[in-house]
C-alpha cells in the first residue's frame, strides 16, 4: 500500500496563502529548510494536487530545465495526479486528471504498488483526504511568523485527532512537525 503524505508550509497561525509568502515564508529561508524540503520531495514516487495548486505550480516548474533548487527535475519527472472536475488537459508532464469519485479513485491509487504519494498545498483536497481517513502522515513546516489574516490551512476542516511523530527545529526558528492521524 502506498502511503499518502501531506506536506504543508504555514505561518505560526496557520496561514498558507501563497500570495503572502514573501512575508511569512521567504524571510525564514535557510540551508536546513531547503534540505528538509528537498528530502520531502525526493522521498515521494508520485504527487497529488488539487486543481488550484496544480495550476499555480505547473507554469513555473515545467519551464525549469537545470534541476533548480535541487527539486525541479523530480517535480517535472515524477508521476502527478490532479483532482479536477473542470480541467480538460494537463500540460505538465506525467500528469493524470482524476475526475469523478475522488475518495474511490485516491483509495485505488493507495492500493497500487509504489512509494509514497505526496500532497502539497491543496487545502480543500487535504481536508477531504483527512476526513476520509486516507492520509498516513501530515508534515507541517511552521515558520515563526504571525500573519493575523490570510487563507488558513485548517479553515473549514473537520475535527481530526493527531499523534505527534517527530519534531525537528530548523534554522531561524522554523519547526518541521510530523503527525499521524490518531489511531494509526
From TrEMBL:
<dbReference type="GO" id="GO:0008703">
    <property type="term" value="F:5-amino-6-(5-phosphoribosylamino)uracil reductase activity"/>
</dbReference>
<dbReference type="InterPro" id="IPR002734">
    <property type="entry name" value="RibDG_C"/>
</dbReference>
<feature type="domain" description="Bacterial bifunctional deaminase-reductase C-terminal">
    <location>
        <begin position="4"/>
        <end position="175"/>
    </location>
</feature>
<dbReference type="InterPro" id="IPR050765">
    <property type="entry name" value="Riboflavin_Biosynth_HTPR"/>
</dbReference>
<dbReference type="Pfam" id="PF01872">
    <property type="entry name" value="RibD_C"/>
</dbReference>
<protein>
    <submittedName>
        <fullName>Dihydrofolate reductase</fullName>
    </submittedName>
</protein>
<dbReference type="GO" id="GO:0009231">
    <property type="term" value="P:riboflavin biosynthetic process"/>
</dbReference>
<dbReference type="InterPro" id="IPR024072">
    <property type="entry name" value="DHFR-like_dom_sf"/>
</dbReference>
Amino acid at each position: 500500500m502506498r502511503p499518502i503524505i501531506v506536506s504543508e508550509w504555514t505561518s505560526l497561525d496557520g496561514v498558507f496563502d501563497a500570495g503572502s509568502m514573501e512575508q511569512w515564508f521567504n524571510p525564514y529561508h535557510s540551508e536546513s529548510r531547503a534540505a528538509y524540503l528537498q528530502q520531502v520531495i525526493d522521498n515521494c514516487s508520485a504527487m497529488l494536487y488539487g486543481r488550484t495548486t496544480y495550476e499555480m505550480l505547473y507554469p513555473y516548474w515545467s519551464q525549469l530545465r537545470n534541476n533548480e533548487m535541487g527539486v525541479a527535475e523530480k517535480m517535472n519527472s515524477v508521476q502527478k495526479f490532479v483532482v479536477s472536475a473542470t480541467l480538460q488537459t494537463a500540460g505538465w508532464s506525467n500528469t493524470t486528471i482524476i475526475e469523478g469519485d475522488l475518495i474511490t479513485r485516491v483509495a485505488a491509487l493507495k492500493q497500487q504498488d509504489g512509494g509514497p504519494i505526496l500532497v502539497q498545498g491543496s487545502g480543500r483536497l487535504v481536508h477531504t483526504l483527512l476526513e476520509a481517513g486516507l492520509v498516513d502522515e501530515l508534515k507541517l513546516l511552521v515558520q515563526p511568523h504571525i500573519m493575523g489574516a490570510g487563507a488558513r490551512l485548517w479553515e473549514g476542516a473537520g475535527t481530526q485527532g493527531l499523534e505527534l511523530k517527530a519534531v525537528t527545529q530548523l534554522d531561524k526558528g522554523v519547526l518541521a512537525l510530523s503527525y499521524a492521524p490518531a489511531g494509526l
